[in-house]
Give the backbone structure.
Amino acid sequence: MRDKNDFSKGSVINNIMSMAIPMISAQIVNVLYNIVDRLYISQMPGDSFSALTGVGICLPVISIVMAFANLYGMGGAPLCSIERGRGNYDEAEKIMGNSFIMLISTGIILTILGLIFKKPMLYLFGASDITYKYASQYITIYLIGNIFVMLSLGMNHFINSQGFGRVGMITVILGAIANIILDPIFIFLFDMGIRGAAIATIISQFLSATWVLKFLTGENAIFRLNKESFILKWNRVKNILELGTSGFVMQFTNSLVQIILNTTLQQFGGDLYVGIMTVISSIREFVMMPISGLTRGSQPVMGFNYGAGEYSRVKKSIKFITLCSLTINTLMWLVIQSFPGFFISIFNNDPEVIKAGIPMIRIFYSGFFIMSLQHSGQAIFVALGKSKFAIFFSILRKVILVIPLALILPRILSFGYIGVFLSEPLSEFIGGVACFTTMILTIGKELKEEKVKG
């Protein structure tokens, strides 16, 4: 069993694609599930655009939940791959067990705090008196089932890190298909509206979490969850938190950015432009799908070979995902710039929304092709355990660049709501070039030195 999925053998590209293809497939289904979820909401009787905007107000909360899932999942899984490459199987298993305990405890705390501070939190995140009721209905149910979200997202990283990409894919597909089926039943048949959408989501995540835990406690897993691995050890927890902080910061700053963007748009453009940003964020989930699956698929392969001292294979992995990332992002950029109205009409056919949204989507995605440098550089830092670099560049683009730009451009430079959308491409160019250049100078030098030593 320990010899399964040995990434130091065979073609590097084949190893990456064997992991990436199931992940991309899972991402496709997952994104379709998110899009269908919001499509159903946009078809609700009454003020459906306000309901969709209400869900957009909840996105920062959802991002915070995902941030903590990434903190322990993306923190522990690469370490698990590295230790497996080194042959330290017992430590790899304990890393997974420690991450599991931290996911459960944090999920409970987030549920309690979220329900206590729900109302001021949603208004702080950009809700108006019109959209608050929809946001409140959705997030209350979501928070109650939050622990299932944490477990399905966080622990699925450990299935993928062991090389079981297809099993990890089933985790996502199971939840996605369940949600697609349950959404219309709860929203329309049971006439529960936006509450029905939230209930469908939580039931779906419960099914995914059950699948994950069944596999990780079963005989087919290389490393299994057991009581002995649940005992927390400070050095192990510290290592998980240090490496996971990158993924945490990426998601947490996503939440922070969404809050700033929503509140600034509420001030300068009102509910219309908050809703347009919700649509653009939904589109972003779709266009990010291939690159996310590819980079996540490459991380177990890079981490294993790095831990095993196969540095030439690490370099091949870096070259492959960089070229693929740049190609995919450029194609997505061309499609969005060519057909912006089509993407908006998926969520809303209101002529006013489409007319206002087309120039905004073109501005927002004007620098998307260069964002491939940020994604590939960030993925490489995480895969090789370079937590400090990964954390810094997560903070650089979102906190140091996007947030100040989103606050300065509308006010000081008088761009109004247009400045909010313009902050994204400016940060993508600066952050992407800085991240990738640093990765080449640091990782490239290290791998070259190790080759000379060898």
Notes: The mean pLDDT is 88. The chain has 17 helices and no strands.
